[in-house]
Amino acid sequence: MPGKKNYERVLKCLKEHVNMKMDFLIAWEPNDDKICPSSVASYFHKKGVEVSLCSPTCTPTKEYNIGVPPLTVDYQDLMEWLGCLLLGIKFQKENSVEDFMSSYELPQGCVHNSQVTLLQWSGFFTTKQLQDLLKTLRKYVESRSEMLWGCLHVQGFTDSPVSWNLQEHTFYTNGDNHYTIFIQPNKKFLTCKAYTSGKLLK
Questions:
Q1: What is the mean pLDDT of the segment spanning 135-154?
Q2: What positions belong to coiled-coil segments (predicted)?
Q3: pLDDT at 51 exceeding the cut of 70
Q4: How far, in Å, are 69, 116, 167, 190 from residue 196 at the CA level?
Q5: What span, in angstroms and rounded, lies between the C-alpha atoms of 123 and 161?
Q6: Residue ranges per domain, the chain?
Q7: pTM score
Q8: Is 110 exposed, middle or buried (CB count within 10 Å of its CB: 0-12, 13-18, 19+)?
């Protein structure tokens, strides 16, 4: 925001390095519904900047007959389960024994034979878009009392220059920069946030 410390700092750096060539991702939401969001592309095009539209992509997936943990399990077990689901790792059947040294075991108390719908969106989203999505998800979950829960997982760019609270994002160390909001039909929720490490490489 103009006048703010970080805005002025970025503006000063850009003005001092005008000969640098770099790519930018820009998301703009006009404060008037009559203004087309794509007008920002027209503005930069007229300034001689090469512009291309980056459209978000969605990959829908359905999983059947898997164990889903309740939100009462340890949050680390819950996030590990969600991570396995996002990575496409197949869960072993209940009471089955695998011939591997390292097999993932479902958390205690899982509801088995559940169906899970996963919508993975990739793109550059504004805060308002995420807020609207969260409202839609909340309304959906609250209208289905048979659901255990629904969740919104937001993953930041691994090479983002800043992390939470405008702290330096030391992505050479671990690059964690995400949060997850779990919502239950009874309006209870759980929030998990991952911070990047504050330790610098020596």
A1: 95
A2: none
A3: yes
A4: 26, 29, 9, 20
A5: 17
A6: 5-46, 57-194
A7: 0.79
A8: middle
Question: How far, CA to CA in Å, does 90 sit from each of 52, 66, 67?
Answer: 38, 9, 11
Question: Which residues have C-beta within 8 Å of that of residue 117, sequence separation ≥ 6?
Answer: 60, 61, 62
CA separation for the pair 7, 166 (Å, rounded) = 12
Query: Helix (H, G, I), strand (E, B), or coil: what is residue 117?
Result: strand
Helix and strand numbers (H, E) in the chain are 4, 5
Enumerate residues 6+ apart whose C-beta is below 8 A from 161: 168, 169
- Beta-bridged to residue 162, according to DSSP, are 168
On the CB side of 164, CA atoms within 13 Å amount to 13
Backbone angles phi, psi at 165, to 5 degrees: 55, 30
The sign one gets for the Cα dihedral 19, 20, 22, 28 is negative
Residue 185: predicted pLDDT: 95
| Beta strands 189-194 and 178-183, pairing class | antiparallel
SS3 48: coil
Most confident of 18-22, 110-114, 137-141: 137-141
Q: Band the pLDDT of 197: cuts 50, 70, 90.
A: low
CB 184 within 8 A of CB 159: no
pLDDT at 89: 84
Q: Give the pair of three-digit tokens for residue 69.
A: 């943990």
